[in-house]
Specification:
Layout: E1 2-5, H1 8-16, E2 29-32, H2 39-53, H3 58-78, H4 87-134
Parallel strand pairs: 1-2
Helix pairs in contact: 1-4, 2-4, 3-4
Length: 135
Amino acid sequence: MSTILSSITSLDRLVSASGLTSKSPKTGKIKLELPDISSGDIKKWEDAINRHYFACGCPQGTLAIIITLTFFGLYLFLRPSGFHISGFEIAAGSGLFIISGALGKLIGIGLSRRKLRKIVFEIKGALNDISDRNH
């Protein structure tokens, strides 16, 4: 199922529907049908919009977990008391992994939403330029 965007209003709705609390389903593909825009620009913008609108933040969450795992492992191996793991450290490490993954995921979604807004702003600027030239 494709969602077709053909106006500034539909682009604005797309940005407002891309938040974490959005009730709209994030499935399918977004297509642009914009007058007087080159097919190359449309393809570039469609690819970027689809990448950022449907972003889940998983790559950033994974990276955050890997970084946390690395530093936690270094802490366990390099501390002066030597390598041994208590129950508290297992619990603390597990909590750190969960929190870092969630934060990484939220950061990834936030960055994608910001990039999506930037792309929509760029498209709106191009449409306004075309409108100004035609009038």
